[in-house]
Amino acid sequence: MASKNPDMAGYAIGQMSRETGVNIETIRYYERIALMPEPDRTQGGNRQYNSSQLKRLSFIKKCRSLGFKIEEIRALLQMVDRQDFTCNQVHTMTIEHLENVKKKLADLKRMEKTLKSMASQCSRGDVPECPIIETLFKM
Prior knowledge:
Multidrug-efflux Transporter Regulator, Chain: A, Domain 2; 2 domains; elongated; 2 strands; two-stranded antiparallel sheet; mainly alpha
């Protein structure tokens, strides 16, 4: 299955999934939206990936785990594919993403505070009157 050239090592889609932790359907989706290049096919029609594609999928998985949007990942990959980027450009994108993460964290903290306040008003009684429901209808 694997040849002497490490870039030509063959990986079935199931192996790619196991190696990266990316669901098989998600790998297919990444191919459909052209985030992943179409793999070669065996004579039987099965996808056959190489180590570069495995590395690319790992990159995508890491970006997704850090909350990067598909279009942000696409932009990063296009820069890498064209080899026309500077570290400063990547840094700028990362800082912009970090600012978005900070905004989301602030929103989550506000949500937590509101939910705690609502929950603290609840008597947990056996009657249909519920201050949480009343509060939600007021918002």
